[in-house]
Every structure is written in structure tokens, then in C-alpha cells.
């Protein structure tokens, strides 16, 4: 059984969420049937901002955190932060163990799950930096999915709600404006909601919508379990 390495801390609540989803979804009857998991919850990694300068880039901290996980005994690494995947290739090239992409696994799972669906319109909820970097737009470019991107006013609501979630402030009131945005897209015929910031799935239980909500953290957890149990 392989040891999972989690490059976490971006943010801590999201890291806990991934860990919990791995444990809950592992088909184990006793402690010894769970995979080993090494978590480096490193909240000192600088903000993940697109077009950063070398001085304020999180890259060196991301690489160092990955190296620690490798040296500590992880057989492969996953990272529950979408925006940090801007530097995915550089991190991957700095270590000798596999580093699996949250972006790639999300896209792969969605293509498998919804390949026969007639309505492939998906609302992309992510940080402004994830959207600006076009991580998901590029990943879906050769598919028949249609990604809907919030406008500038809506994106401000998305980002502010994510910031509230990082503070532990998730409740019906804190997500009210975002819930209104979501349902405005549903009324336009959008059937899928992609929670592509790891704080977004933490809000799912507070959303009131008929959209199918896609949790990339859960998809990553299930992928990691399969890799560990191979």
C-alpha cells in the first residue's frame, strides 16, 4: 500500500476536508486497511497570485514543501489547491515521486461521468487567479463542455465568499449573494457547478440550487485512494 503525501495549508480548512474525504471514502473495516497519509499543512506559503514577481512567488515554498513530503516517505503527492497548480510543472520537475494534478483528475472524472449528458454547461467557481491563469479553460479546450465564467461583479462576490470561508465564516448569510449568482446561471440553463477553489465545496451544504455540484476535492480523494491501494 502506498503512502499519500498531501501538500496542504492552502488553506487549512481545505486540507482537513481532503484528509477527511480520503478517510471516509476508503473501503476499510479496520485501522490497518487505511493508507498512510503524510500531511504537510504549510500555511506560510505565500498567496497564490497569478503574475507574481520572483520576490513574492510561492514557488520556492511549494517546492520545498513537496521535497519535505518526499523525504518523509510519501510515495506520491496531491495538492488541494487549484490556484497553486499554476506552478504544477515546476513542482513536479523538482521531485522524483509522482505528483498528480487536481486539475487533470477533475477534468478526467467529469469527462467520464458526463460523457453522455446532453447539457454540458458548467459554471466555474474559482479564485480570480485560477480563472485568469485559464487552468480549467485550457484543460477543457478539447472537450464539448462549455465553461461559464462569472462576470467581474460576480467574481468579486466569489472571491469575497472564499475569503470568508478561509476565516471559518460559512453560513447561510455568508453565501447568500453567491447562491443568488449560482441560481441566476441555473435559470439560464447551466446544469453543472464546479467548485474549483477548495473552499467552495465547503459551502455546498449551504447552497440551495438544482445544479449538479461537482466537488474536485472529493474526486481527488477517491483518485488518491485508488492510487494508494493499487
Automatic annotation (TrEMBL):
Keywords: Isomerase
InterPro entries: Asp/Glu/hydantoin_racemase, Asp/Glu_race, Asp_race
Cited Pfam families: Asp_Glu_race
Similarity field: Belongs to the aspartate/glutamate racemases family.
Record-linked PANTHER family: ASPARTATE-GLUTAMATE RACEMASE FAMILY, GLUTAMATE RACEMASE
Listed name of the protein: Aspartate/glutamate racemase family protein
Protein's organism: Metabacillus endolithicus
